[in-house]
C-alpha cells in the first residue's frame, strides 16, 4: 500500500482488532470465572445442607438431597464407598467415584446406628468441616438428561464418628449460555466496529493530509516553473503540517535568496572581470601591432589586479561553500605587528598599538591575515594623514580596531559597505577604488570565526572598523599548522 491513508486505516484497524480481541477474551474469561464461582457457591451450599443432615445422624437412605436435577448429590465414606446418591441419578463423573448406587455395606443402613447406641442414650451429633471445599467440573445424568456441573466436596462426621464426603453439583448450563451469548454478540459487533474505525481513520487521515497534498502540488509547480518566489500554502492550525509548511517556505526563501545572491555574484563578477581583461587585451594587441607602444607596466598592473580579483572570487566561493575556519591558535598582537611591518609600500604609515599580551584566538591564520590586509587597504585608500591599528582585550575575546582620518562612512551606508561589489565612491577610478569585495570578505571571514565586524566613526572623523573575535576555549590544543 503506497497510500498513507490506506496504511493508517489498516494500521488503526489492526490495532483496534487486537485490542478488542484481547479485551473480549479477558471479558469472557472473567465472566466464565465469575459464573463458575457462583455455580461452585451454589454447589457448596447444597453440599453443606446434605452434610448437616449427615452430621445430625439422618439415615443415609433418608437424606433430603433437594432438587436432584439442580443439585445431584453423591455421598462416599472414608473408604471411597458410595453410601448415598440423589434420586434418579443415573451417571456421574468428576467426583472421583462413578457409582450412582449405595454400596451394600454395614454403613448403609440403620443397624450400625443402632449398634452404637446404649439403650436410649442420645448418640450425640457429628460435625461439618469448615474447611474450604474442593471443587471440580464434571457431568451428571439425571432422569435421562445429561448436563455439565460444578461439584463441591464437603466433609462431614456422623454421630458414629465416621467421616463422609458429600459431593453436590450445580449446573453450568447458565454459565455456558451467558458466555456463548456474550461471545456471539462480540463476534457480531466486531466487524461493524472495525469498519467504523477504518472509515473514520480514512476520513480523518484524508482531512489531516489535505494540506500536505496542497504543499506537494505547490512544490511540484515551483519545480516545474523554477519560480522560487512562490510559496506553499500554510494552514491555520498549529500542528506538524503547519510547521512543515512554514519550514518549507523558510527553505524556499533561503533558497531564493541564495540563488539571487549567486546570480548577482555571477553578474557582478563578470562585470568586474570584463574591465581588466579588456584592458589587458587592448594593450597586448597594441603591443603586437606596435611593439614600441606596448605599456608593459600597465599590462603588469592589469594582470596583478586580475589575479587579485580572481583570488577574491575564489575565496568568496570557498566561504559560500561552507568552508570552516581552522582551529590554530593565533596571537593577534604578533600578527598585526608582523603584517604592518611588511607593508613597505603604504602611502601613509600605519601606527600600531598592542595594549595587552596573550591576545590569542582560534582560527585560520591565512584568513585572518586577509581580513587585516583588507581593512588596512580600505583605510589607506580613504585616509588623509593617519591610519592606526589597536589590538586589545574585549569583554568576550579580542578586538582589533582600524581607524583612519578620512571622510568616514555615512550612517545610512554602514551596512551596505559590507555587500559584495559595493563602492560608495562610484566616481573613483576602479584602479583606486577596488572591486568592492574586501569588506565583504572581511565580514564573512569574521563570521566564520564566530566573530563580527562593524563600522562606526573614528575620533579623527574618519571610519572606525571593529573586528571582534572570541577567545579560544581553555581545552583547545595550542599550536597546529597555519592555514
Could you give a short description of this structure?
The chain is an alpha+beta fold and 483 residues long. The chain has nine helices and 14 strands. The strands form three sheets. Strands 1, 2, 3, 4, 5, 6 and 7 form a seven-stranded antiparallel β-sheet that branches. A five-stranded mixed β-sheet has the order 9-11-12-14-13.
Outline the structure in words.
By secondary structure, the chain is of the alpha+beta class. It folds into 3 domains: 4-179; 240-320, Helix Hairpins, CATH 1.10.287; 328-470, Heat Shock Protein 90 (2-Layer Sandwich). Helix content is 47%, strand content 19%. The protein has helices at 4-56, 111-115, 173-225, 240-289, 296-320, 332-341, 365-382, 430-433, 438-448; strands at residues 73-77, 82-85, 89-93, 127-128, 134-142, 145-157, 163-171, 328-331, 350-354, 360-363, 387-394, 397-404, 452-457, 463-470. The strands form 3 sheets. Strands 1, 2, 3, 4, 5, 6 and 7 form a 7-stranded antiparallel β-sheet that branches. Strands 9-11-12-14-13 form a 5-stranded mixed β-sheet.
Amino acid at each position: 500500500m503506497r497510500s498513507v491513508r490506506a496504511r493508517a486505516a489498516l494500521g488503526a484497524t489492526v490495532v483496534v482488532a487486537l485490542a478488542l480481541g484481547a479485551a473480549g477474551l479477558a471479558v469472557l474469561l472473567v465472566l466464565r470465572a465469575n459464573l463458575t464461582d457462583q455455580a461452585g457457591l451454589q454447589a457448596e451450599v447444597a453440599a453443606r445442607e446434605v452434610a448437616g443432615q449427615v452430621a445430625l445422624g439422618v439415615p443415609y437412605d433418608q437424606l433430603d438431597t433437594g432438587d436432584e436435577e439442580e443439585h445431584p448429590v453423591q455421598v462416599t465414606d472414608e473408604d471411597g464407598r458410595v453410601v448415598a446418591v440423589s434420586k434418579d441419578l443415573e451417571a456421574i463423573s468428576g467426583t472421583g467415584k462413578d457409582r450412582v448406587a449405595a454400596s451394600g455395606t454395614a454403613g448403609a443402613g440403620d443397624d450400625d446406628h443402632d449398634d452404637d447406641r446404649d439403650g436410649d442414650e442420645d448418640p450425640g451429633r457429628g460435625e461439618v468441616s469448615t474447611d474450604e471445599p474442593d471443587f471440580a467440573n464434571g457431568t451428571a445424568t439425571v432422569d435421562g438428561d445429561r448436563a455439565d456441573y460444578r461439584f463441591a466436596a464437603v466433609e462431614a462426621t456422623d454421630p458414629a464418628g465416621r467421616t463422609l464426603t458429600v459431593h453436590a453439583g450445580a449446573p453450568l448450563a447458565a454459565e455456558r449460555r451467558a458466555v456463548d451469548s456474550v461471545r456471539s454478540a462480540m463476534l457480531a459487533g466486531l466487524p461493524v466496529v472495525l469498519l467504523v474505525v477504518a472509515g473514520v481513520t480514512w476520513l480523518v487521515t484524508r482531512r489531516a493530509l489535505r494540506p500536505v497534498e496542497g504543499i506537494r502540488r505547490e512544490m511540484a509547480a515551483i519545480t516545474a516553473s523554477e519560480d522560487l518566489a512562490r510559496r506553499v500554502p500554510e494552514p491555520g492550525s498549529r500542528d506538524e503540517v503547519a510547521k512543515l509548511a512554514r519550514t518549507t517556505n523558510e527553505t524556499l526563501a533561503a533558497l531564493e535568496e541564495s540563488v539571487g545572491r549567486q546570480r548577482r555574484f555571477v553578474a557582478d563578477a563578470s562585470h568586474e572581470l570584463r574591465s581588466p581583461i579588456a584592458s589587458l587585451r587592448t594593450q597586448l594587441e597594441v603591443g603586437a601591432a606596435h611593439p614600441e607602444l606596448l605599456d608593459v607596466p600597465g599590462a603588469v598592473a592589469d594582470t596583478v589586479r586580475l589575479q587579485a580579483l580572481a583570488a577574491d572570487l575564489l575565496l568568496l566561493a570557498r566561504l559560500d561553500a561552507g568552508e570552516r575556519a581552522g582551529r590554530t591558535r593565533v596571537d593577534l598582537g604578533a600578527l598585526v605587528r608582523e603584517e604592518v611591518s611588511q607593508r613597505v609600500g603604504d602611502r601613509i604609515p600605519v601606527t600600531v598599538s598592542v595594549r595587552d599580551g596573550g591576545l590569542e584566538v582560534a582560527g585560520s591564520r591565512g584568513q585572518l591575515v586577509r581580513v587585516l590586509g583588507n581593512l588596512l587597504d580600505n583605510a589607506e585608500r580613504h585616509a588623509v594623514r593617519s591610519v592606526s591599528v589597536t589590538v586589545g582585550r574585549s569583554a568576550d575575546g579580542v578586538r582589533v580596531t582600524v581607524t583612519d582620518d578620512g571622510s568616514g562612512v555615512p550612517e545610512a551606508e554602514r551596512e551596505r559597505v559590507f555587500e559584495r561589489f559595493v563602492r560608495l565612491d562610484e566616481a573613483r577610478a576602479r584602479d583606486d577604488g577596488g572591486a568592492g569585495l574586501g569588506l565583504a570578505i572581511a565580514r564573512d571571514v569574521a563570521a566564520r570565526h564566530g566573530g563580527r565586524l562593524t563600522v562606526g566613526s573614528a575620533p579623527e572623523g574618519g571610519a572606525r572598523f571593529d573586528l571582534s573575535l572570541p577567545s579560544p576555549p581553555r581545552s583547545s590544543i595550542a599550536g597546529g599548522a597555519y592555514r
